[in-house]
Amino acid sequence: MGTASTNSTKPAMRDSLIAAAFQLFLERGYEQTTVDDIVTLAGVGRRSFFRYFPSKEDVVFPDHEQCLADMTRFLAASADSDDPVVRVCDAARLVMRMYAENPTFSVQRYRLTREVTGLRTYELSVVWRYEKTLGDYLRTRWADRRDGTLRANVVAAAVVAAHNHALRHWLRSGGEGDPLAEVDGALEFVRATWATGQVADAPAEEAEDVVVVITKRSTPMWRVVREVESSLGEG
Amino acid sequence: MGTASTNSTKPAMRDSLIAAAFQLFLERGYEQTTVDDIVTLAGVGRRSFFRYFPSKEDVVFPDHEQCLADMTRFLAASADSDDPVVRVCDAARLVMRMYAENPTFSVQRYRLTREVTGLRTYELSVVWRYEKTLGDYLRTRWADRRDGTLRANVVAAAVVAAHNHALRHWLRSGGEGDPLAEVDGALEFVRATWATGQVADAPAEEAEDVVVVITKRSTPMWRVVREVESSLGEG
DNA sequence: CCCGTGACAGCACTCGGTGTCGAAAGTATC
DNA sequence: GATACTTTCGACACCGAGTGCTGTCACGGG
Fold it and tell me: What pLDDT, on the 0 to 100 scale, is given for residue A207?
């Protein structure tokens, strides 16, 4: 048997580097902390830091690589019967779930990325990879569709924006409340405008007023929407 | 009087640095070119490079700072009667116009940013500033609206995505065709789904078939759109 | 017991970026 | 036209991130 930590001995140094790094980042700031400071506090050699993290910024986002792989696998496991928009919304929920697993850690990291320009830029590149993954999936699903790639890019961007909207709101609140519920509300906004397929959750149809729209075929769709919305009292 | 170049003497060094940098970037690649190589070719001191460009990456995007300022001024000069979505679409056109001014330069830069990770990350941060500018504008315009900030973030992301879709397509083609027309088509896709206000350019209304839609008030808007679209033969 | 393999520390080096100082060139004032 | 002030540039020194290399130690199989 030996110690039960035999399997977790390998990432032990990685975890201690993350702990040492965040301890120093929070007490002196990111740019005021050198890699030498981190490895000295962790009691390891400088070269070992770059063995586990390709750059100093990577230690701030230690789990995004895994999450990106999870999202890729999730999308690859899709069925053709799935609504693509619903699918990418569910994929975005995976990211929110990762943030929600460690609220205090996520909030601390959020404070850092808000202040340090280099970290914000790095986070942007991570977000871009998520968006690209979603866009690639939608592109293949809409390969036959006219303007399929344009639609894929726009919807992927919209999903990411909605997700980030809910995420930042939750992080700004200090990790209070249910982030999954917030992202659901934001993604519903996207799904309501872009989903093309079957309704997943049709509420009980209660009889109500009827709206009649009469328009020419040449009228642009957005104009129809505007008329209906205003007639419904949408503000 | 003196020489007529009195006013253009100041950015002379800046331009020569850009020229020297791109010459070396194109013949040996970005990462294989050091700042010392650039200043040696330009015949100036090393310190002067960082006087004109805060980082090595900035020399690749010499005009984005100006374009961002133009966009900010353009949005600040908006009238309340303008449709916000139409306004941000026009703002996005400003960026495309900047790219279209120097097609060969834009294409060369595109090739670089595709290959070099660091440049792509830098470009992401630039795009993020554009998106933030658009989002800030929409946020103030929709301050009273329910879900105004969410809508602002999503629409800003959609506009940027549509713009980049047209831009990349034009750049991949080597700068052939009319990029302004391409971005108009892509932005029309966004405007059609998000614009809320008056029509800016109503084409001559030719009598055509009439579509009649009857629906309940409780029916979600996207379902109405789907029905109308399919009845119009949208694939 | 020996040898191969892999993880680690230490060192040296490159390169991007900054602070500082001194020289030179331009400009205003007398 | 000479002097004092200001701006601009070049040169040097320095810091920190990131990489390549070497030696060493531990482990595991022959």
Answer: 43
